[in-house]
Prior knowledge:
Helix 1 (15-22) packs parallel to helix 6 and helix 5 (122-128) packs antiparallel against helix 7. A seven-stranded mixed beta sheet has the order 5-2-1-6-7-8-9. Strands 10, 11, 12, 13, 14 and 15 form a six-stranded antiparallel beta sheet that branches. The chain is built from eight helices and 15 strands. The model has no long low-confidence stretch (mean pLDDT 95). Helix 1 (15-22) links the parallel strand 1 (3-9) and strand 2 (27-33). It has helices spanning 15-22, 50-57, 71-80, 96-99, 122-128, 164-188, 220-229, 297-304, and strands spanning 3-9, 27-33, 38-40, 45-47, 62-63, 84-88, 106-110, 133-140, 150-157, 237-240, 243-251, 264-267, 271-275, 281-289, 295-296. It folds into two domains: 3-200, Formyl transferase, N-terminal domain (Rossmann fold); 209-304, Roll (Methionyl-tRNA Fmet Formyltransferase, Chain A, domain 2), CATH 3.10.25.10. With 314 residues, the chain is of the alpha/beta class. The longest helix is centred in the middle third of the chain and has 25 residues, at 164-188.
Amino acid sequence: MPLRIVFCGTPAFAVPSLRHLIAQPDFQIAGVVTQPDRPRGRGQETASSPVKAAAIAAGIDVYQPEKIRSEEVFEYFKRLAPDAVAIIAYGQIVPARLLEIPRLGWINVHASLLPKYRGAAPINWAIANGEKRTGLTTMRIDAGLDTGPTLLKFETDIGPDETAPELSSRLADAGAPLIVETLRKLERGEITPVPQNNSQATLAPPLKKEEGRMDWSLDAHKIYNRIRGFDPWPGAFTTFRGKNCRIWGKPLKPISAGGTPGIVLPTREDGLLVICGGGTVLRVEQVQLEGRNRVTDGEFMNGARIVPGERFGT
């Protein structure tokens, strides 16, 4: 008989795994659970989650409870009686009594090499902190925050210029075969869950708007990591002439550039430069002042007519 699975997930990151599970002849997707439709985008129009759209396209029933802790949700899982629940970026903490229903447990794909980067934003923080490698971990979830025993892992390098959306897309694709392999090996008794070493744990908390504010006292490479890691939200931002502005850029090779961090150096040869900590320099490639369109550094310099000594971050 096929393995009976309920899938829980919400964002685009979970979609490749759902589609791959649906395609397996030895699995039966008994139902899909995702977050309720919510206002999204600038127009705040009500929209479905990417997981809901994928499930409907495949003809699978979708359940969208407001709170997973409700009695109604408990009855839903008892009624479906899954062998396993695959849960990927669902968005709510699962109560203990639900964890006991499937005989193989609730199997999560987490976007880090656990126990490092437990929490809601592991991809963002791995890049922002300058990590060179990351990956995926499947685990059987328990009552803690990403503390359950690990099952299988996938490891990969982080590209030196890779942004959070780019890495997320790669890991989402890699997660699809990993969750399938994990479920099959669990069913055959070929995996021994490994408890996590809590002493090695690090956290990846949800991103806040203020995380994106650039600290020009950091060296240019650390600032560049934050630009990549906080793309697209909260983005890397600073202030210029009293207004917030979003920036995109890259560190230059070491050059001699003493001065106060944040000072702007408009040049013909190298474009718009900003002095960072330790005398390092960031080449700002694009700027978006609040209420304005995103422009190149050349367009920004032409419009702003920067005077000597002006700086970002004032």
